[in-house]
Amino acid sequence: MPATPPLRLVPAPALSLQTRIVSQTVILTAFVVVVLTTLSFWIARTLLEQSVRSQLLTLSVVSEDALSSTVRSYRERASFTAMREDVRTWVSRGETTGAITPLFHALREEEPALLGMAFFNGRGERTGTGGETDGLRWDGIPRSSLIPRLTDRGWESVDILVPVRQGERVAGAVAMRFDARDALRPIVTVVPSLGPTARLAFLPPEESGVSVILSSLQPEESFTLTLGEAEDLRQRRTLMMDGGVGRRENERGRDTLAAYRPLPVLGWGMLVEVERRDALSAVRRLALAHAAAGTMLLVFAGTLALLLARQVTQPLRSLTASVRRLGPGQWTVQRTVTTEDEVGVLERVFVDLSVRLRRLYDHLEEEIALRTDALKKQYVLDRAILTTIAYGIITVDRTGKVTGCNPAAVSMLGITEEEMRGRAASDVLFLCWNDGEAHGEHPLGVTLKRRALVRSPAGAFENVRRADGSLLPVTYIASPLLAGKHLFGGIIVFQDVTEERRLEERKSEFVTLASHQLRTPLASLQWYVELLADEKKSLTSAQRGYLVEMRRASDRMLSLLTTLLHAAQYEGKGVQPAIRDVDLSALASDAHGECKAFAQESGVSCTFTGPKQPLMVRSDPVLLKIILQNLLSNAVKYSSYRRKGRVALTVGARRGGVVIRVEDTGIGIPKAEQKRIFERFFRADNVRKFDTDGNGLGLSICKSIVERLGGTITFTSKENAGTTFTVVLPGAVKSSADKKSTRQRKRDGGLRTKD
After folding, report:
1. Is residue 258 part of a domain?
2. What are phi and psi of 404, to 5 degrees?
3. Engineering a disulfide at 78: which of 160, 254, 487, 566 sits with its beta carbon 3.0 to 4.6 angstroms away?
């Protein structure tokens, strides 16, 4: 026994089990870390944002209370000053030039936020000033008023004007200016605790489009901002006047969290805001911490998974090493796994497999020798069958190229197998009719396209052209070669039917000769019957009846002989078609007219449907007329046996040819007898009950003519319901008149009907 190389396992390019365990563990850990980190980040951000919103709201409330309290103290200070007796006296007299300065300094010591003051007489004229009084004026308003003063540096001061009354009369007014920074100091010192981007803003409603931004008490850090769109201004003012906490985009395009608060004491709105990124910076730090922790966890999980995977796969690696050593002389696998888990079970299976491999190997070569001998015998048998069989066999690939043949095919075609290989089957096996006209689409091409069996038509006279140009009568059958649903080629088997064809020709010659020979005595018989018929006066009524029956019998016999002659001519290819352009529509209309009179006598309605314009086809008009006459006469005859019988003739164009359809409502053809309907002399059982004079040759003649013209004839039928015959002829052409009227035919529907 020759040495056999040991069995080796070729490693697949896929990942090992150990690598998959580690990678899947790391992926699972990474998924958990990402999910938990994302969830914790989202929760922390949500909670922190809610906390910042609460701080903003609290700060806005506290700031509004502190600012309102300070401004109210300013108003009270101004009211108390206006109510002093000495101030009322000075204002009413208009003599305040020397008295206001000491009063201003005295009040300044009590209220350091006081920047200046002024007295006005009843006409609104200044009668005395002290300190900073630029822009202070009184318009004679009879009630106290508070006017925040805005400059290009922001909100600098608050002007409070209080009228001074003498009885019911307003004698003048006292105006006092207080430093706004003193009122804002408690607020500004708290706002930066929210973050470096925290800001405090005021929106004076009477100053259209102006927002006072104050970050600290330093003048250079306070400024007045002109807003953009009026719509944005209205939205901001509405939010400030209504109050609340929200998220907005500031004038710098930054995403911020803002608390809005109205200031009734000033008639302004207040905004405390901080950039959202700055407020949520702690969340980013938390995310970085989580990312670092997750990375460390992934490294730890990967290391642990590697250690576990090595421990789990160690028995598998040992088992793999044992299996690799399997081969001739080494069929034993040593047990290395003592556990009863899946790996232990797998090792037991391999041990059992090694025992079976040893047994199989012992008998393998003997089995191979036996099967090889059987294959050789089968090959010899197949070759003997192919060599000795009298049928020609040619095989082709899926493209129709010849791949092989048997000696019978070589002998029939007169061409060697080497000359056939690689050529198209249609060139090697050229099928044609008796006149050498090409067969049409090759049966091998049809069977490869349809993946179905194709047989030579019954009664067709087909030939194969040999290499020397002679014609060999054949019948054939072509079949696809399939492996499941996969097509890998085809095969055609053909038989030499020269003797059968010669026998058919002799039969046709005999029928023709017998028909000719019988016509002469039959003509004499008919002549004597006519002579006897002229002697009617000397004949009795019974004798005249006998003459009528003799004449009828001789007519039937003459019709039968004529039909036999036609059948022999058409089936024997004794008649060559005279091909020319034929107007099928006019030809069918004439046949319909001839049949219509016979149909009316039989009580059958007959209709014709066809194109209004000429329908030209390359064919033989005489043979076409015979087809139409036979189909129409049969349809009328078998429809007359049923009440209100109808026959419909239809012709029309189709792709690559024309169609003739004859439909009737006659007695139909029994299903069991439909396959024999085109046989000569065959008549169905239900027909023989009604008609005893038929000869069963009409449809056989029609089929022979149709096939001779290169067409097909088919039918559908149901007993007691009717039959429809369909003839398809190739080679339709359009006349000039037809081309001109294409658009008109489409508009009219393309058909005409005659009753």
Report:
1. no
2. 180, 170
3. 160
Q: At CB < 8 A and 24+ separation, what contacts does 213-222 make?
A: 213/154, 214/154, 214/155, 214/184, 214/188, 215/188, 215/191, 216/188, 216/192, 217/181, 217/184, 217/185, 217/188, 219/153, 219/154, 219/156, 220/153, 222/153, 222/154, 222/155
Report whether pLDDT(740) > 60. Answer: no
Q: Is there a single domain that holds both residue 587 and residue 731?
A: yes
End-to-end CA distance of the chain: 92
| Rounded percentage of the chain residues whose pLDDT exceeds 90 | 5
* DSSP structure string for 19-61: HHHHHHHHHHHHHHHHHHHHHHHHHHHHHHHHHHHHHHHHHHH
Q: CA–CA separation, 169 vs 189, rounded Å?
A: 45
400 dihedral zone (left: phi>0; alpha: psi -120 to 50; beta): left
pLDDT value for 401: 92
Q: Do 148 and 114 fall within a single domain?
A: yes
**CATH number of the domain enclosing 481:** 3.30.450.20
726 has a pLDDT exceeding 90: yes
User: If pLDDT is split at 50, 70 and 90, which confidence band does 249 have?
Assistant: confident
- The average confidence (pLDDT) of the chain is 76
Domain that holds residue 560: 502-569
Q: How far is CA 239 from the centre of its chain?
A: 52
The pLDDT value recorded for residue 53 is: 83
| Residues 499-514, mean pLDDT to the nearest whole number | 65
> In terms of C-beta density within 10 A (0-12 exposed, 13-18 middle, 19 or more buried), how is residue 571 classed?
buried
485 lies in the same domain as 585: no
Q: Which residues pair with 491 in a beta bridge?
A: 395, 479
Q: What is the pLDDT of residue 744?
A: 42
Residue 79 counted as domain residue: no
Verify that 748 and 599 share a domain, yes or no.
yes
Encoding tokens for residue 515? 């028909």
Q: Is 674 a domain residue? A: yes
Domain boundary among 496, 530, 553: 496
**How far is Cα of residue 459 from the mean position of the Cα atoms in its chain?**
49
- Asked whether residue 739 is domain-assigned, the answer is yes
Domain limit, last residue, from 472, 496, 520? 496
Q: Are residues 599 and 728 both part of a single domain?
A: yes
pLDDT grade for 49, boundaries at 50, 70 and 90: confident
Asked if 474 and 498 count as a contact pair (C-beta separation under 8 A), the reply is no
> What's the pLDDT score for residue 375?
82
Residues 565 and 478 in one domain: no
- Distance separating alpha carbons of residues 201 and 154, to the nearest angstrom: 10
- Judged by DSSP in three states, 706 sits in helix
**Beta-bridge partners for 158:** 148, 178
Do residues 641 and 615 both lie within one domain?
yes
376: its two tokens: 């050789």
What is the pLDDT averaged over residues 483-491? Answer: 88
> Which CATH number belongs to the domain containing residue 147 in this structure?
3.30.450.40
Number of domains present in the structure of the chain: 4
Tokens 């008149």 belong to which residue? 737
Q: Tens digits of per-residue pLDDT, 259-304?
A: 888 888 877 888 888 888 887 777 777 778 878 888 888 888 888 8
Shared domain for 413 and 483, answered yes or no, is yes
